[in-house]
Amino acid sequence: MSEQTNPRTHKPYVIEQLCALTGIKRAAYYKWTHRKPNQRELDNEVIWQFIEEREARDYGIYGSQRMTRLINRETEFHVNRKRVYRLMDAHGMTASIRKAKVDRKSQKAEVITANILDRKFSANEPNQRWVTDCTELQYGIDTLNKVKLSAIKDLYDHSIIAYNLSDTETAAAVTITLHRALETCPDAEPLLHTDRGSAYTARIYDLELRQHHITHSMSRGGKPIDNGAMETFWSHIKDEWFDLRPAGTFKELVALVDAGIDWYNNGRPQETLNGLTPNEYRNQTVRKAS
User: Fold this and answer.
1) Positive or negative, the Cα torsion across 206, 212, 213, 214?
2) For this chain's UniProt record, which GO biological process terms are given (predicted)?
3) Any idea where the domains of the chain sit in the sequence?
């Protein structure tokens, strides 16, 4: 405060002048400069340090709501969202903005089934309802190289139970993903929901589902919201993982996908799962059943 200069004389203000300009009594100013922070202010410093370190580690992906859950989960403090919002806002910290996605067009549909799932994006037990989809990932210089990532999500605990990288989105590629899911959950006979992409409307894929007693549900044409649970997953993992960690080579991308799926299943608590990660929620169910 005493380092401010007078714009007319270009000389430093003295405390008396500054207090007169601001209408603050000298005694009040000196009392303020010698005050000790109260316990809440000290706690806020510790909380802010946690926020800053966590955001730096995870590339600034958290908003106040998710950060509140992390603080309550991983520290000794129990705070509400307003307090966390004020701390983040005071430091100009916000989460990354999510981008809308565009549904791709159906091609060469051989098999079309009804929308049996009907946007019921929940389940009463593991392996009751699965959703699946493909998305495009990029790598290399100027991200010129492109591959497809296929994944299957369990609507019970939101876990990704299988995934596969391929050059293109084909019935063979998504069938590999299905086989990996069945290796993980060998007794599963779920309802499996897909969009109407050519890989999922192929007769060979439909026969594969029938062979494993899996009921096939499909989105309506031009209605990506019918597979909203999968679209949400892609949005989260791209915004919070892939977009922040560019891969230079295919080998790097493979490692990035493996690490990203593991992070989503084991390191990303979700409010709709009572603040647990997908695998924590799944394991909790297994323990209760036993």
Assistant:
1) negative
2) DNA integration
3) 39-90, 129-289
> HEC profile for 236-263?
HHHHHCHHHCCCCCHHHHHHHHHHHHHH
Q: Read off the amino acid at residue 205.
A: Y
Residue 1 has a pLDDT of 43
Asked if the 129-289 domain carries CATH number 3.30.420.10, the reply is yes
Query: Cα–chain-centroid distance for residue 72?
Result: 18
List the beta bridge partners of residue 284: none
- Can you say whether residue 224 is alpha, beta or left, with left for phi > 0 and alpha for psi between -120 and 50 degrees? alpha
Please, which contacts does 85-94 make with residues 24 or more away whose CB atoms are closer than 8 Å? 87/44, 87/47, 87/48, 87/51, 88/51, 88/64, 91/48, 91/52, 93/51, 93/55, 93/60, 94/63
Instruction: Give me the percent of the chain exceeding a pLDDT of 90.
Output: 68
Confidence of residue 290 (pLDDT cuts 50, 70, 90): low
How far apart are alpha carbons 164 and 152 in whole angstroms?
Answer: 9
Kindly give the interhelix angle for 15-22 and 26-33, rounded to the nearest 10 degrees: 110
Rounded mean pLDDT of 97-115?
62
Write a three-state SS string for 145-208. EEEEEEEEEECCCCCEEEEEEECCCCHHHHHHHHHHHHHHCCCCCCEEEECCCHHHHCHHHHHH
